[in-house]
Design goal:
The protein is α/β, with parallel strands linked by helices. It has nine helices and eight strands. It has a single domain, classed as Nucleotidyltransferase, domain 5 (2-Layer Sandwich), CATH 3.30.420. The protein has a six-stranded mixed beta sheet with strand order 3-2-1-4-6-5. Strands 7-8 form a two-stranded antiparallel ribbon.
Length: 257
């Protein structure tokens, strides 16, 4: 494998918790999966300059497009109305499909700390020469995309996933990625190893099951893989002026229940 044949998914956090970085090769084998601080993430990317990078965070503050009369008219919304006015266009496109997503404020200073960490990471990556992928245009030599793992899993499933912090939500997400071809343990085998004594003692053998931060980073890396290897299997929502979210499907359903 060359240093170019790698697909990175980054789940930024802020405060004392490090980010989680997943790296997949062309065969969807895990090259790296684990926590890194901000400097460690950038160093990993620098070591793989041809990587396709997907980041689970908004790339910029809200530019106010959803408050513009021409944009609202195009979407069939009252031009002078306020419904959805606080969302980015990409956030509106997901929320109207019943996919819950954060709202990005217009001022970076009022954004939660994990968003500010995301803004800082994008800035550092663009300084390294990465450019945003825009469907229909020639891809940048160093490709960067914004993703939203909850929406990615919903689209791969065809419906909203179970809560990611719960055991069943982790099992469901890992099964989705396993069926997509990622070199992961089949989560059914984890269930098969559970015994009555495990349940009674509360000591569950879950070593082969990934935590939700790892699963979010993995689905981001898988989306990066599709951008490069199977671009007909991705779509984007939003507006390039304030951020496009890239999703692992050729098209979206009207609603995800």
């Amino acid at each position: 494998m060359s240093i170019n044949d790698i697909y990175l998914g980054i789940d930024p956090t802020a405060g004392r918790r490090p980010a989680t970085l997943a790296a997949l090769d062309d065969d969807l084998r895990i090259v790296h999966l684990g926590p890194l601080d901000a400097d460690g993430v950038v160093a990993f990317v620098e070591a793989h300059p041809g990587a396709v990078v997907a980041v689970d965070a908004p790339q910029s503050p809200n530019r106010g497009l959803m408050r513009r009369a021409d944009v609202r008219r195009r979407l069939g919304l009252p031009p002078r109305g306020h419904t959805f006015g606080q969302w980015k266009l990409c956030e509106y496109e997901l929320r109207r499909r019943n996919l819950r997503i954060y709202g990005t404020p217009s001022e970076a200073s009022t954004a939660p700390s994990w968003m500010r960490a995301g803004f800082a990471l994008y800035k550092r990556l663009t300084q390294l020469g990465f450019g945003f992928f825009r469907q229909g245009d020639p891809p940048p030599a160093k490709t960067l995309v914004e993703v939203h793992p909850h929406a990615c899993f919903a689209i791969l499933l065809g419906h909203r996933p179970l809560l990611k912090a719960n055991l069943e939500g982790r099992l469901q997400r890992q099964m989705v990625l396993y069926l997509e071809g990622l070199d992961l343990r089949n989560p059914v085998h984890t269930l098969e190893e559970l015994t009555r004594q495990h349940l009674l003692s509360g000591s569950l053998p879950l070593d082969g099951l990934h935590n939700h931060d790892e699963l979010d980073a993995l689905v981001a890396a898988f989306t990066a893989y599709l951008v490069h290897q199977k671009p007909s299997r991705v779509c984007q929502v939003g507006d390039a002026r304030e951020g496009l979210i890239t999703l692992p499907a050729a098209g979206l359903k009207d609603r995800y229940d």
